[in-house]
Request: fold
Amino acid sequence: MYNVLYNRHIGPSPHSFLLPEPVVDVGDYGAILTTGLTSGHQGCTGCGMVSGTNQVLRALKLTGKHVVASIGTGCNEVITTQNTSCWGDVSVDHNNFPNTGATLSGNIAALNALARAGALSKDAFVNVGMAGDGGTYDIGLQALLTWIARGEDGIYVCLNNQAYMNTGIQGSGATPYGTHTTTTPFGKVIRGNQRTPQYLPDLALAAGASYVATACPVRHRDLMIKVQKAAAIEGPCVVEIYSVCPEGWKSETDVFHEITELALQTRSWVLFEAERDRKSNTVLFTLNHVPQEYVGVMEYLKLQERFSGMTEFSEMVERAQEIIESRWSFWKPVLEANGINGGDRAHDL
Amino acid sequence: MNVLIRGRFAVVATVLSGNSAAAWGFRLSRVQCYPYYPITPSTSCSEQISRWVNDGAMDTVTINAESEHSAASQIIAAGKSVRAGTATSSKGLLYMIEVLENAAGASIPCGLFIGNRATGAPINIWGDHSDAYAMRDSGVIQLFAADAQEALDNVIQGYRIAEDLSVRLPFAVNLRGFTGTHAYEGVEIPEPADVDGYLFPFVPLYPLFATEKPVTYGAMLSGNFYRRHKRNQMAAISNVPEIVLKAGREFGERFGRPYGLFEWVGDEKAQLVIALMGESASAGEAVTHHLQGKKGIPGVALLKLRLFSPFPAREIARALAKAGTKALVVFEEGLHHGAVFPPLAQRIATAIHLHLGADAPKVASVIGGLGGSEVRQQHFQLMFNLADNLAEGRPYRTEPYWLDIEEDPIFAESEKEVAPALWKKWGEVWKRQARKEQYFRPLPKDTEEIRIYSRAGQGAITSAVGFTGAGIQCGHQLLTVPAFGSERRGAIITTDTLVNERGKRKIRSFNRAWDVVILYDDTILSSPAHNVLEGLKEGGVLLVNTSRLRSAKIREILGASESRVRVFTVPASEVAQGLGLSHLNMAMLGALHRVYEKIPFEKALTYYEKHVPRPREASLEAIQQGFQQTADRQAASAKKERRFVVSNDFLDWRPQDHSLDLWPSALEEIQLG
Reply:
């Protein structure tokens, strides 16, 4: 339980009330100032995750610290380490599928032990854990939540492409309602994924994370600011990144931007951050993006074949819209404070 | 305290449980990261380390993990940069196995201490080797310890072996649950400075926290790279026996206790050998020493395996060939479902047939000790007799024999003893076996043994451990093994102590012939499930905490004559109450000294002065009063006062249970004075 406080300001900001100074805002072109992954990765054309990983690494390198990445099994690991390593000057520890949180914890313990022995300075390193949505929402949830609960200083990045893509597009705990996957096929009787997804930010905040943010690689400035904030804020920080997967979503490889933008427009993906002040037990929520006009979820669904089944059924589309609206209702106080009528249905955003 | 001079060093023997000894191993190895998750029976190793760390006695980063899977993940992560270790058992180890292969595959020299336990289902918390067998293909070096001292020594040597540049693999030190992990005995704790000279600080070969030359661990490799990697991993583990020998030799030079790949206990030219691992060897050693050089017995020996993975096949074959062994019985506490033989027998059989061909001794497999089943001396007599039959060319089973399965005995005198289906299968084998009396002569009672019946929570273990410490200080070898179970507080439990008076040879096996039986509570006399005279030597001592029963009455209840049992009583509860102590165990400890004089009270007091639990002064006073107020029959009859009045209803109440029919009716006659 915590007190909820809304930030009136909408939009990305390098400021955080947990930090004495703003983090480095590298501007719109900051992403090209340094390298992320080196060349040679085996990601698909149009993969959002590779772009996300790149931006995370760039943001972290810009802090001047040496990056130690504890990565979980999944696409991200497989495409960047097959018979080689695309991680350049990043130290990488891939351990297993379910234990990214624990691996992160072990590496943080090792860093503490080395620092205690005077072998190195803790400030010279930043520990980051990276895993997909399967390794976060499902099999790795226990290790992740207890890592957060232990309050260790590090960052956990979830690259959420909303299904088990590495094993061939099976439904995960992050798969949206109505999605066709190989284990939640759109059948004659059961129409796609019947579950509504869990939400990592909710889980992470409940476990006691210091800082939780959602991001997407299309808004790279926003993403990098958030990662840098996570690096600067003490305690466990979680950043969840929306990752387009053309293979799993059955979308065209050149609509990376369009899909992401539509996700933001339809509020299927909401960019926000949450910062926890432990003393007052308050979490400050900042909404980073509000769409200019109302766009129904149908626009988002129809670009991706994984939703092709449900778009035939108006009640399913309505249900998807309801899920969006119920999540969006959380931001009503911010919208009202900014003169945006985010009322019952957000027609007049 | 007892100072033993070994080599250059004066080493102090301290009473430790197997778990605490392993914890000392981690502490002396200066483990830098220790994540843990509790599981019976290895938990107290982690408890001990947490205590040290929180008191500032040990500089280690501990992690309160949420599962064994995470604890294993954490030692594997941290093991890339610092010396890391953890402890687990049973299902916990099985939960770890998923990640442990990563430790071996990525060359992480981290350490595990395993309190071996059955793996279920059915659920069972007691000791056997099922968990160790389950991990044998995960590429981890597996060492087996037979007692607390070996657990401590093996953890230190384990890091030395694992971190060797030609090895760089994880290791596990195994010790049988409860009879090993919870047995208290004298352990020599090496000086930290000496261990530092033996085990150098951890050096990460490919450090993660290094800004130069960044590395990627756990990369994905396709077939051509993968098979090479795995071949190299196999090459690394095949270097282990040589390093184990070197590390064991140097350990001996430094600390006076050399270690090898296995220990050969018994005759150099042993025709009959029993091969086994771990703590159960204790009973086997007693039998081997007893049989050695006896008439009608060809040479006998135990092959106590220390290194199980990698399996020292050639060395074992060589040792057996050198001894001229004709028959080998492999005893083990675990299964290999669906296989011909269980893992150890299978490994040994393969080894000797590969290396010795037609000259290989015959191999029979015996399964026992499962789920904490007691491994007794009689079992080894039986197994040596079986080996004798093998050596003489009699037919034997090509599938494992089982200990203590009534319808499937190892030897049967008549067909009636055996299940018909089994007789159909193995009748010819049974018919042609010879039971040779020379193997079954009763063993000499070299040790004196004390059993405490108490109620869980009364502090019997604390007092027995204190007694053990005092005995060790007096120069004897002692061992205390509490019987642990899933008892609730207040249930009747037993705690056994063995005294090997000035024994040169360590004895760790009980004859189960008690010199002294102690009852912490006189209501135990009325327990239908406990016959307190069982196993008590003729003329042995029964010491009872009671304020209301006289010794004559107790004998009457038990239906025992004066020559059968000498009964002493002590009002320990009164003593404890009078001193404001919550436990009566210290008074009982004093009383024990009154009835058992081999460990002089005055000398023991010097130990208790340093080691009694708080409040120290009251505890010491309780020991004194317990000693003084212990009364035999004369003294008790002089005592008239009865402070505790218990109603007859309470004493007479019995559960509705058919077993009551067996209970002596004399008990009904308990009267209050």
Observations:
- The mean pLDDT of chain A is 92.
- The CA atoms of residues 322 and 345 of chain A lie 9 Å apart.
- The radius of gyration of chain A is 19 Å.
- Residues 100-116 of chain A form the longest helix (17 residues).
